[in-house]
Amino acid sequence: MSDVILATEGLSLSFGALAVTQDVNYGLPKGARYALIGPNGAGKTTLINLLTGVFAPAAGRILLSGEDITKLAPHERVKRGIARTFQINTLFGQLTPLQAVTLAICERRGHGARWLASLRTHKDAVEEAYALLELLNLASSAERTTVELAYGRQRLLEIALALAMKPKVLLLDEPAAGVPVGESGELFDVISNLPGDIAILFIEHDMNLVFKFAKRITVMVSGRIIVEGSPREIAADPQVREVYLGRGHHHG
Description:
This protein is of the alpha/beta class. The protein contains ten helices and ten strands. The strands form two sheets. Strands 6-7-8-3-9-10 form a six-stranded mixed beta sheet, sandwiched between helices. It has a four-stranded antiparallel beta sheet with strand order 2-1-4-5, covered by helices on one side. Helix 4 packs across helix 5 and helix 4 (97-109) runs parallel beside helix 6. The protein is globular and about 55 Å long.
């Protein structure tokens, strides 16, 4: 499959006697909108930590566009095109979204340290930042301080900051966690409408969001991938229903 942008081969990691990732072979195609689901403790976040370089695997390797990145540091992976979201309230609370995203763009261009002193000279970075905020429905909040934003807006800003890195792959670990139900749909509408060349892998507990927005779903249990398929296949899979959805639980 030449269209695979991010792949793992035999990826394994143990914490002491606990195998948290067991021989994971996974492929994320260009432009994918894929979900990773499974019960708590299945190893989903660990897999994202392996992909982004937070953890080093005990065995196996990670390929980005066919190139082995297993030993690269997290910031090197960001430069190569892997971005993930982090919770931002602590980082950028007193900045406006426009300032925060402009900072991230200047960082990507290699002049982050000088950005605040000479914001006017980075007019094109400000314009790029504003365009990203528009893409994520945040333009109306561009000049407010980040701490004032509703939680759903803060999560959108986290995605804007990740997109400022111009990623090929965007990894979202429960982007709707803590977001009121009314706002989580909007959040995922925005995510699904991101540029089509960015591959997106998201972890999400809300099955309605997963089945609505994922084109393909991977199910992890105890550090292993047990099944992958379309939403329809996953909803009908007896193994998934047993392990994950519980007997009698149905999604249309």
